[in-house]
């Protein structure tokens, strides 16, 4: 049995006392989010009330999940922590490193070959430290977690930003960097700023072409990529109860795109159906027994404005299908306005590829709805105009939809089934194109669409929609087509219209799988040896970072002033670089190569102040490092949005950048910087960003009296001899200041474990 029933019982046993204590402490009815958070406070913290968005609080999560691309760094750090075994149930999932090229079988075999060293490393570390290992081909972390480990009222962290997917089954599931995972696996408390709460009330019921995906596409349009920062989004209302658990998972998954800490739905009949359908009736029975604690209080949902910091209401009966994009997931277009938007903005109307599946939207229900459209293409003699690919989220889903004939339907329509892995979603896509310089469009049911994300091509306009809408567009091959109203000409010259999609929530014959791809760890792992070849290009043991020198940081050179969007994809690109995720020095050669230099509007070209010449960012930084000169990176709003990859924080740390100064940070990235002992600060007045000049030498003052809530001062020494000085903010608490001083949190853990 993969899930841990005893652990779940223990968590549920805590609920009544913790909820009662929380009621007393806050003096108010409680949201679901508060109940789950209070049930997971570290012992010392229970019985306290917290200021939302202000207080840092220690939690004790129940589980940790890691995907292969981030697990390498997480586990390299864990190996340094000096623990014999993980302190909480943990799993590793091999999903990100499989390249999509030809089709599932061939691609999987190629991946096993090319990534052998990394898979062997992850398998042996898992074996040694008591971590469950999901082999390549088993599926994508979030789908596998939903099917096997997520449980209502639980709390988990995962080294991937879409960890919130498990919120569909009522779990507070939060994406973090590997260093956070390392703490929790080492048995230390996990710290989070007590979140603000956003309530989303869903009324009505979905029908026709509208699906759960459209709920989050709409929410993304309302809240934008920053709107959920520091908040947990709680969905409730009759509309919420009408959505399948996997549909809810889709909504929570893509909540990462609005910057939310996580999103969550209450336990309800749909959750119970899913638990029973995935052979976890025992969990449903346990959850039923405490179900009043696994949803928000009635008073809260009756008057949400009084209890949430922000409330949004969406009527599912009126919700139109949406298409979001290009280049950002919050550019939301109701389908009725999309064709006009394509024309007005001159986006390429010809659709070249439609891609469905991924870690979100690969449930049985999603696949059956998309297949009902595919079936019509075949039956109505429509020729599919665009390329079409299907990425099942897990081997269990793949096996089941294959058994039930749906993969066959996609094949008839001309679709290609890819491996159960991230593939194109993370740029692991050997896309065939005759001309990469052509502006072109693709549409996916994935969650992200930043420039270059899927195929590395800046000319690709990527749009996001539900799998059924993606399928319809793939058939039409034209983004100005509206499947709800328009007809298509079939091979016999007739005008035909696509009927509304029909889906099946749970497989009638039940889920099935031959080999789910799970490998249990050794009972006693002490004899297991973990080998890392010192000459490896893909794995490198970590050296501790140096402690702070105890003085202000003076005379830093400006490495880059990044302009506009600077996501973790810009800071540490995925795709071709994924192969170096276990080798800090090698992956550092991609540091900030996607960021646009404010002064020349070019990526990967910055002025080296020592030579006056322009060169790539990593090489320039290595030159400063060789000369023992510290540098600073300046950035815009929501710096580091997107993924949880801590490489985006470790690379600058490794190469000698001393501080990141931006208008604002995305949550996970800010924590990652702090964990690695890097100084992450924000302009007190965002307009001061404009004062930073290309040849500046920069001082950061006030570090000798670095204290929570106390501003630091930045002094810019311009080339002409003039200076500018201004205050900067930081959010370091006392503990995080210790991390900074020690040169990283791990240096402290290592010391503690050694004592
Ligand atoms: C992503 O969707 O960007 C990823 C790839 O899953 C990342 C993790 C990574 O970079 O390894 C994420 O979302 O955290
Ligand atoms: Fe994988 Fe894409 Fe999901 Fe990230 S968003 S976990 S890359 S499928």
Helix content: 25-40%
Q: What small-molecule ligands were found?
A: alpha-methylisocitric acid, iron/sulfur cluster
Strand portion? 15-25%
> The biggest beta sheet, please?
7 strands, mixed, barrel
Task: Give start-end ranges of low-pLDDT stretches.
Answer: none
Count of strand segments: 32
The helix-and-strand class reads: alpha/beta
> How many individual helices?
26
End-to-end distance: 36 Å
Please list the strands of the largest sheet in the order they lie side by side.
22-27-28-29-32-31-30
Q: Taking all residues together, what is the mean pLDDT? A: 96
Query: How would you describe the shape?
Result: globular
Radius of gyration: 25 Å
Kindly summarize this structure in a few lines.
This protein has 755 residues and is of the alpha/beta class. The chain is 33% helix and 19% strand. Helix 3 packs across helix 5 and helix 8 (212-223) runs parallel beside helix 10.
List keywords for this structure.
7-stranded mixed β-barrel; 32 strands; about 750 residues; binds alpha-methylisocitric acid; 6-stranded mixed beta sheet; 26 helices; binds iron/sulfur cluster; alpha/beta
Question: What does the model show?
Answer:
With 755 residues, the protein is of the alpha/beta class. Helix content is 33%, strand content 19%. The longest helix is centred in the N-terminal third of the chain and has 22 residues, at 5-26.
């Amino acid at each position: 049995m993969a899930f841990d029933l005893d652990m779940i019982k223990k968590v549920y046993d805590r609920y009544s006392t913790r909820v009662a204590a929380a009621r007393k402490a806050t003096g108010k009815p409680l949201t679901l989010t508060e109940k789950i958070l209070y049930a997971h406070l570290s012992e010392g913290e229970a019985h306290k009330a917290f200021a939302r968005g202000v207080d840092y609080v220690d939690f004790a999560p129940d589980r940790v999940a890691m995907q292969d691309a981030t697990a390498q760094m997480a586990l390299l750090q864990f190996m340094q922590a000096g623990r014999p075994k993980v302190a909480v149930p943990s799993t590793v999932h091999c999903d990100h490193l499989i390249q999509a090229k030809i089709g599932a079988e061939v691609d999987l075999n190629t991946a096993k070959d090319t990534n052998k060293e990394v898979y062997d490393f992850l398998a042996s570390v898992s074996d040694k430290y008591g971590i469950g290992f999901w082999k390549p081909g088993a599926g994508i972390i979030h789908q596998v977690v939903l099917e096997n480990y997520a449980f209502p009222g639980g709390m988990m962290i995962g080294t991937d930003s879409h960890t919130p997917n498990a919120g569909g089954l009522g779990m507070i599931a939060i994406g973090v960097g590997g260093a956070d995972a390392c703490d929790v696996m080492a048995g230390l408390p996990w710290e989070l700023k007590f979140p603000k709460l956003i309530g989303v009330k869903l009324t009505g019921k979905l029908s026709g072409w509208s699906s759960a995906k459209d709920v989050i596409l709409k929410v993304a349009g309302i809240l934008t990529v920053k709107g959920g920062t520091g908040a947990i989004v709680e969905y409730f209302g009759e509309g919420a109860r009408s959505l399948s658990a996997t549909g809810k998972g889709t909504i929570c998954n893509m909540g990462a795109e609005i910057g939310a800490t996580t999103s969550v739905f209450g336990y309800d009949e749909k959750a119970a159906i899913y638990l029973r359908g995935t052979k976890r009736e025992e969990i449903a029975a346990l959850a039923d027994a405490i179900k009043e604690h696994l949803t928000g209080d009635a008073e809260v949902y009756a008057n949400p404005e009084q209890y949430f910091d922000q409330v949004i209401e969406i009527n599912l009966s009126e919700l139109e299908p949406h298409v979001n994009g290009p280049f950002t997931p919050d550019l939301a277009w109701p389908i009725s306005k999309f064709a006009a938007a394509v024309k007005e903005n001159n986006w390429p109307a010809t659709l070249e590829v439609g891609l469905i599946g991924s870690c979100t939207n690969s449930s049985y229900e999603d696949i059956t709805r998309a297949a009902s459209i595919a079936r019509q293409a075949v039956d109505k003699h429509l020729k599919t105009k665009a390329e079409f690919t299907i990425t099942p989220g897990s081997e269990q889903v793949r096996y089941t939809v294959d058994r039930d004939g749906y993969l066959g339907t996609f094949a008839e329509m001309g679709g290609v089934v890819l491996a159960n892995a991230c593939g194109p979603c993370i740029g692991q896509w050997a896309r065939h194109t005759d001309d990469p310089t052509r502006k072109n469009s693709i549409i996916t049911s994935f969650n992200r669409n930043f420039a270059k994300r899927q195929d590395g091509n800046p000319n690709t306009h990527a749009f996001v929609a539900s799998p059924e809408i993606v399928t319809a567009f793939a058939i039409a091959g034209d983004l100005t087509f509206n499947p709800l109203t328009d007809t298509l000409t079939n091979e016999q010259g007739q005008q035909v219209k696509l009927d509304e999609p029909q889906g099946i929530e749970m497989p009638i014959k039940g889920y099935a799988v031959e080999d789910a791809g799970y490998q249990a760890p050794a009972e006693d792992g002490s004899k297991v040896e973990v080998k890392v070849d010192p000459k490896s290009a893909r794995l490198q043991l970590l050296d501790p970072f140096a402690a702070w020198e105890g003085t202000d940081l003076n005379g830093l050179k400006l490495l880059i002033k990044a302009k506009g969007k600077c996501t973790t994809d810009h800071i540490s690109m995925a795709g071709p670089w994924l192969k170096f995720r276990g080798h800090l020095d090698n992956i550092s050669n991609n540091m900030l190569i996607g960021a646009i230099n404010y002064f020349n509007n070019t990526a990967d070209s910055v002025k080296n102040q020592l030579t006056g010449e322009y060169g790539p960012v990593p090489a320039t930084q290595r030159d400063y490092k060789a000369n023992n000169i510290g540098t600073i990176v300046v950035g815009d709003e929501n710096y580091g949005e997107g993924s949880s990859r801590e490489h985006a924080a470790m690379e600058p740390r490794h190469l000698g950048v001393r501080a990141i100064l931006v208008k604002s940070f995305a949550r996970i990235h800010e924590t990652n910087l702090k964990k690695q002992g890097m100084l992450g600060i924000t302009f007190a007045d965002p307009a001061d960003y404009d004062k930073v000049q290309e040849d500046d030498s920069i001082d950061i003052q006030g570090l000798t009296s670095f204290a929570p809530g106390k501003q630091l001062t930045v002094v810019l020494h311009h080339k002409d001899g003039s200076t500018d000085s201004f205050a900067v903010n930081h959010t370091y608490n006392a503990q995080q200041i210790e991390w900074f001083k020690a040169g990283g949190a791990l240096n402290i853990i290592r010391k503690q474990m050694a004592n």
